[in-house]
Write a structure and sequence with these properties.
The structure is a homodimer.
Chain A lengths: L7 H16 L6 H8 L3 H7 L11 H14 L6 H17 L3 H11 L2 H24 L4 H23 L7 H16 L15
Amino acid sequence: MPRWEAGAQTRLTRAAYELYIERGFEHVTVAEIAERAGLTKRTFFRYFDDKREVLFSGAPAMQEAVVEAVATAPESVTPIDAVVAALAVAGSRITETGEGARARQRLIESSSDLQEREMIKMVALKEAIGGALQTRGVPESEAGLTAHAGVAVFQAAFERWAHTEDSADFPSLIFGALDDLRSAINPSARAESPHSPVAG
Amino acid sequence: MPRWEAGAQTRLTRAAYELYIERGFEHVTVAEIAERAGLTKRTFFRYFDDKREVLFSGAPAMQEAVVEAVATAPESVTPIDAVVAALAVAGSRITETGEGARARQRLIESSSDLQEREMIKMVALKEAIGGALQTRGVPESEAGLTAHAGVAVFQAAFERWAHTEDSADFPSLIFGALDDLRSAINPSARAESPHSPVAG
């Protein structure tokens, strides 16, 4: 008997999605997923810690790609531009799958357990981006705020993508969300805030 | 036997903090907390869902106060200013306790379980602020980004406060963090971004 079943992870993932969509995430057990995939529970647990993790198996590779892109962006690129460009690429890869990514998003929104797990992955991504910015020499506090802003616009762009049927590409959505964030926190609406040139 | 012990919640909270600091959060059981407080486990569970919740008992009142302040700020106040002002007040109340709040922060940072719980409370706060902004007529997407920015600067300000011994007041720290966020995401460093006046 082969120790690693060919394509086991793919079969388990497909079976899990099918069952979650058919019955609702809360009503599916690991045993049922394994059975649908023609595998054992034990095999399931070789690939996934629990039934939530099936939906997040791409997170480590996504995070690694973003961190790499931020860390190696040309020096002339500002921190926020490096972060948003990296997230634009990552988001494009995710949204390329079209209906698959939308189905995943609907599943996550259907379960507070999954939303919690998603939130934890997003905070981990933010921390990793902050670390990557620090390797570029960005001071810790600026790195943290820039990473936070990047994740905020990524989430805003992703929600817009997931909840509209139009085919706006992800980079347009995330750069649009960045402009929206800038407007939202812009002090220019207040008459008492003079525009002062940068000192130095 | 009285159904509600006088000051039970306060006694349990104090006992929990003492034990967490003495032994480390992971090594304390609910039974030990109850014993130190001279109460039963059953009484503990009347007030708290689990041993983590002792550290977050103030969260609902804090969230309610912030939502109320955002929802009732004068119409002339911009959304981001309403949010940051509300969080400045909330943060001032928390940091007023001085060493108590720092001890709590050190405990949270000592445990991934507690960090996770903190993260969940922060996301709930962000969602509630977004909802409060929508009651002011702010469109959903702008409300979400503004709330996210507010929570980001609140967290940045709180970390600065917790990790420095100086006595900078919380409002200065959070307004400083807001300015830092503006600089961090400002496109003005890029020569190719013309400063365009608002159309209208």
